[in-house]
Structure formats: C-alpha cells, structure tokens
Amino acid sequence: MALVGVIMGSISDWETMEHTCSMLEELEISYEKQVISAHRTPDDMFAYAESAKEKGLKVIIAGAGGAAHLPGMVAAKTTLPVIGVPVQSKSLDGMDSLLSIVQMPGGVPVATVAIGKAGAKNAGLLAAQMIGAFDDQTASRLEAYQAAQRKKVAEMRDQLAD
Ligand code: RP5
Questions:
Q1: Pocket lining for ligand 1, CB < 6 angstroms
Q2: Which atom from ligand 1 is nearest to the alpha carbon of 40?
Q3: Considering the domain 4-161 in this protein, what is its CATH number?
Q4: Complex ipTM
C-alpha cells in the first residue's frame, strides 16, 4: 500500500521528480507516481485529491512548472499534507513555478520546497519525516541518513586538511 502519492503536471517534470522518488526508495517509503495536470486533466486532479486519503495515502507530493497550480488545487481538495515542488521552467527558470506554489492564501497550506532537484529531493525527505513522526522504523532510517551526511562532511574536512 502506497503511503506517498507523487504527482506531476507533465512527463517533462519527471527529470525533477525522479529525485523525489529516489529519496523515497532510499528511505523505504512506499509510493505511487502519476502524471496529473491541473490544466489538461482537472477532473482527474480533483478525483485524485478526493480519493487520496481513503486509499491510504498519508502525504501528497506534487511537482509542477510554470503556472504551477497542481499542488495548490490538490491541497484545496484534501486534508492530507501537500508538498509542492517548483519545477525549473525554461522561460523563467522556475521563479514562476515557485511563486505559483508558495503564495497560497491563508487556510490552504502547501509546504513548498526549493526549485528543482534539491527541492525534489527534500520533498521526499520531508514526506519521510512526516511519516517518521509516527513510525519508528522510518525515524531510524532518517537518523541513519543524517549520520551518513555527517560522515560525508567529516570526510570533506579530512580532505581539506590533507
Ligand atoms: C506544467 O506545465 C507542467 O508541470 C510542466 O512543468 C509544464 C510544461 O508542461 P509540458 O508542456 O512540458 O507538458 O503543467
């Protein structure tokens, strides 16, 4: 059973959103992925948002670029936490995506991460942290992930000192 739903506005978003999925796999979080467009398939978007909770999802991660309405509109139709990933668009470098996702009206939150790959990766981590707040095994994997990051920095320090 998938705990996290990863959706994106277009297949062109996959090169960004695959970093979310890789992180979820690394942390052993079950997920499903789907292309759902706010503008091209609005009925599918609402159906997905409305059924997400009852099918067992705990978090939705939505990536979109340009006029990036997918995360906000999904958030409008579910009580699950929604994480928005601004995809780096070609024309405005992702600033359009970021502002479209982050500037939600009070009452309809979308947890917005950074533009592009770093944000996509952090979206996976953030979803794992939400699940880890209630699941000890996930919390342990997150501790191991942080310990590995500390080790990498320690190696960088050694490298610099050589
Ligand atoms: C958005 O429009 C998608 O999220 C994508 O980032 C952007 C461009 O989509 P394509 O024209 O590449 O399908 O809906």
A1: 9-10, 12-13, 37, 64-66, 87
A2: 14
A3: 3.40.50.1970
A4: 0.97
Instruction: Tell me which residue has tokens 């978090």.
Output: 59
40 belongs to an annotated ligand binding site: yes
43 among the known binding-site residues? no
pLDDT digit string (tens) for 18-70? Answer: 999 999 999 999 999 999 999 999 999 999 999 999 999 999 999 999 999 99
Give the closest residue to 63 by CA, choosing from 30, 112, 106, 28. 112
